[in-house]
């Protein structure tokens, strides 16, 4: 699950364990994350049947939650 906090905090959780953290900002329909590791990426928000997802450049969708 990808969590986007109101303060710009980002956290990715997989199988109940924190996988990645960082800060994010939104540009148009894209969300760009600067990870604490120094890496960064930009993805797109997608809604499907009322569920929010983030889609990466390869088309993989992960469930997202706005906090």
Could you describe the 3D structure shown?
- With 67 residues, this protein is an all-beta fold.
- The protein contains no helices and seven strands.
- The protein has strands at 2-4, 9-14, 17-27, 30-35, 40-48, 51-55, 61-66.
- It starts with a strand and ends with a strand.
Briefly say what this structure is.
By secondary structure, the protein is mainly beta. 0% of the residues lie in helices and 69% in strands.
Question: Mean of residue pLDDT?
Answer: 91
Uncertain regions spanning at least 5 consecutive residues = none
Class based on secondary structure composition and strand pairing:
mainly beta
Q: Report the end-to-end length measured between terminal Cα atoms.
A: 12 Å
- Strands across the major sheet, in which order? 1-2-3-4-5-6-7
Envelope shape: globular
Number of helices: 0
How many runs of DSSP E, i.e. beta strands?
A: 7
Largest sheet: 7 strands, mixed, barrel
* Order of helical and strand elements: EEEEEEE
Radius of gyration: 11 Å
- The helical percent reads under 10%
Strand residue content? over 45%
Q: What tags apply to this protein structure?
A:
globular, single chain, seven-stranded mixed beta barrel, 67 residues, mainly beta
What are the SSEs and their pairings?
Layout: E1 2-4, E2 9-14, E3 17-27, E4 30-35, E5 40-48, E6 51-55, E7 61-66
Parallel strand pairs: 1-7
Antiparallel strand pairs: 1-2, 2-3, 3-4, 4-5, 5-6, 6-7
């Amino acid at each position: 699950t990808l969590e986007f906090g109101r303060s710009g905090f980002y956290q990715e959780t997989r199988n109940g364990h924190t996988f990645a953290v960082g800060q994010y900002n939104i540009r148009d329909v894209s969300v760009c994350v600067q990870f604490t590791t120094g890496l960064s990426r930009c993805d797109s928000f997608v809604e499907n049947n009322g569920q929010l997802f983030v889609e990466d450049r390869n088309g993989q969708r992960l469930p997202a939650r706005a906090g």
